[in-house]
Amino acid sequence: MTALAVSGPTVRARCERLADGFIAGAAAALPWSTSATSILIGLWLVCLLPTLERESLRRIFHLAAAYLPLALVVLALIGVLWADVPLRERFEGLTPYAKLLMIPLLLWQFSSRDSGRLVLYAFLASCCVLLVASWLTLYVPALWRYAKQPGIPVRDYIIQSGVFTLCSFALLQRAITTWQQDNKRALAYALLACVFLANIVFAALARTTLIVIVVLFVLLGLFYLRRRGFLILTAAVIALAALSWSTSSYLRWRVSNVAWELQNFTPETDTSSGARMEFWRNSLEIIRAAPLLGHGTGSTPAMFARQTGVAQGAPNAASNPHNQIFAVAIPLGFIGVFVLLMMWIAHVRLFAARDFPSWIGLTVVVQNIVSSLFNSHLLDFSQGWLYVLGVGVAGGIVLRERVLPPASPPPS
């Protein structure tokens, strides 16, 4: 028996179809609802587990892209042992790491069967619907009462700008690669990408997203354009940036407000940028006290309370260093940081090609790395699951198409 649990080919095929459908539904739900995403991921897992095959799963776990996420979770589990906080807080600190266990399962699922692109298309279609809803709630006052705020129908501007960034650069890659074969289709891709980017500029701008966009434009030019094309892209980006700056007061306010926030931050006058600098300063002091192994899983809120003198649970208490390196170093030390960096490197290497699935995976990984300089996005729900789904699904497609040799058919 190579399957972990299966009662017959008909039941197995049904479980496979349901698993594919549920994970596509989870990807579509992610920009809209955390509850729906959690439910669909649970249903996906229930349907997937009976279809797992030991031999092919073992081949997946030979890859660094699969076993390094598992290693980080195991390290966080071991870190529970030396945390000097109540047991409940230890396991609360472990929970955000658990989602990384899904990466090897997704890699196996979509390297075993040709259904990964369904998930990508479901995610893009869902984001297109959200895009329409965002523009409508931005410019139709009658709809404002149905949205969280104008231009942001659901969730928040951070997750909305993040998923729209991924969609826009996926479409730009398609525009470049299809230009020679079909100019009209390429222009349609480019136009839709610009609509996504315009929404970020005018409706839902996270300042970290601007840095991500710059990095992704550079990668897009280096991967897919020659020198002349890269120069044309650079000029176009500069022109679009100047146009956006001159026409979007929202963009000017968000960017120019950074200096004011840094200069006027006090414990009583909390500002986003100023608070981050304070979080980082306190994080360095906490890490210095236990640099190798950290303070244990779940210890971050308690360590901030001791460092700042503000009790846990207080309105102005800090519990998040807003940097992924620090968020791992505080509980797991330099060993945890090393595993995290190795995982990121392994995932970048997995997507080091110029095909479409590799570009999707690379944009997801690069977005997470860059945004994690200013946030702990890998351990957050929405951005963390975006990373898990992006790496798992795109990585599975890549493994199926160009990395793993064909598996021998299971014996009857």
Tell me briefly what this model is:
By secondary structure, the chain is mostly helical.
Structure overview:
There is one protein chain. The protein has 412 residues and is an all-alpha fold. It has one domain (9-261, 321-403). The protein is 72% helix and 0% strand. The protein contains 17 helices and no strands. The protein has helices at residues 9-29, 34-48, 54-61, 64-79, 87-98, 102-112, 116-139, 157-178, 183-202, 207-224, 227-247, 249-263, 272-289, 300-308, 324-350, 356-371, 381-403. The longest helix is centred in the C-terminal third of the chain and has 27 residues, at 324-350. The radius of gyration is 22 Å and the shape is globular. 39% of the residues are buried. Mean pLDDT is 87; it is low at 408-412.
Q: Which structural traits does this protein have?
A:
single chain, 412 residues, mainly alpha, 17 helices, 0% strand, globular
List the SSEs and their pairings:
Blueprint: H1 9-29, H2 34-48, H3 54-61, H4 64-79, H5 87-98, H6 102-112, H7 116-139, H8 157-178, H9 183-202, H10 207-224, H11 227-247, H12 249-263, H13 272-289, H14 300-308, H15 324-350, H16 356-371, H17 381-403
